[in-house]
Structure formats: structure tokens, C-alpha cells
Amino acid sequence: MLAFTKWMWRGAFNYTRSAYEKKSSRFVPEHLTSINYPDTNFVVTGANSGIGYATALDLARRGGRVHMICRNKERGEQALFNIIQETGSENMIDEGERIDVLILNAGVMMSHRTTTDEGHEMTFATNLLGPYLRTPEQGADTIVWLAVSPTVENESGGFYEDRELTAKHLTKDTESTREEIDNLWTYLEKCVQDEEQQPKEQQPNSRDNSDNEHPDGLVEGETHPMR
């Protein structure tokens, strides 16, 4: 009964004619299109196609410096070439510069249960554990990333609600209970402790990259930065 009431409440405030008229009248496209990112360094994973490519392209248009992380070297280089041709942006990031924004677009959705060598479910490990374990000690802040299609047929009031600059709509349907939050952080902290106690030579991804060097000096897993 409670779920039905919440569903009806959200529908009335987002998907009725009055909700559409009210929220669409307040929407100002310029609030999104006028934002630029000069001297800001971005890293985008899965940047050679789809949402990742569109993200890298838009950030480059807005003056951002972008590192494109791609699994396939040839497709990554082609995507980089296309973005440079379309934006005229080709200034490189110097090695060692800070990362201001990390956009973890690449992810997985397994069709059957698969676990990592550490025993974690693959989708959970790739989309949540990996990013968490690799960034807190570097000063990473909380990141909320919302990806949407640029064209939507029969848009509703919710279409405009999701494009608000503030995060006021997030708590309506996505806020976890205090217990769920505490359980998640307890589990993640345990994962960090387990990894720190594991000998380095047994940790995943602790390999020596020098074995993967090519004659041209490139290394497998390299990034192609551009501005």
C-alpha cells in the first residue's frame, strides 16, 4: 500500500499535464549549455563510443582537458581523432597533472553470476567496489553521474525534474535508509582492510607494466589525453 501511494504521489507531481506545464516552464536550457570547464582535467572511462564518447566530446567542446580511457587501442585512437576534428581541441595534459573529475562510465551488467578472484560479485565489484577502493586515498569526493538521451519523445514533468541543477530530486526515490548506508560502508571498509593486508604481489593489477611496452614507447592500458 505504501509503495502504491508513493507511486501515485510521484506520478501526480511528474507525469500529469499540470506537472509537465509547471516544470517545463521553469526549465532554462542555457543553465546547462552555458557551463564551461577551462583548466579542468577530466578522466572518462569507456570514452571511445556511446555515452562515454558523447561525454568526452561535450567536455572538450566546453574547454575541458580530457583523458580518454579505452580498452581497444584502435577504436580509442579513432575516437580521439574524431573529437579533435570536431572540436579543434588537441592540447595535451602534462604527465602528473591533477585529476579534477573522474567519470566512470565504463561498467558491466553480467547476465549470470560471476565472481572476481577475491570472491566479489562481478557487477558489484566493477561498478562500485573498484572505483571506491582506488580513489578515496586520493581525496575523491562523492560523485553522482546522471546520463540521459539528448532526445526524448513525449517528455513528462519528470524529464525536466531530472535536469534540475540542484540535487533536490535525488532524495525522493534514491535515498537509502540509514541502516543500508551503514551496512554498505561497513562492507566497503572491510574490503579496503582485506586488500591492505594482502601481500602486494598477490593483489590484482600489481603487474609490472614494462612487460607490455611496445617499440614505439606506448604501454597497454595507456590514456590518450587531449584538450
From TrEMBL:
Chain intervals with Basic and acidic residues compositional bias: 208-227
SUPFAM superfamilies: NAD(P)-binding Rossmann-fold domains
Coiled-coil segments on the chain, per record: none
Signal peptide extent: none
Family annotation (InterPro entries): NAD(P)-bd_dom_sf, SDR_fam, SDR_member_12
Residue segments, region Disordered: 190-227
Gene3D superfamilies documented for this protein: NAD(P)-binding Rossmann-like Domain
PANTHER family: DEHYDROGENASE/REDUCTASE SDR FAMILY MEMBER 12, DEHYDROGENASE_REDUCTASE SDR FAMILY MEMBER 12
Protein name as it appears in the record: Uncharacterized protein
Source organism (scientific name): Heterostelium pallidum (strain ATCC 26659 / Pp 5 / PN500)
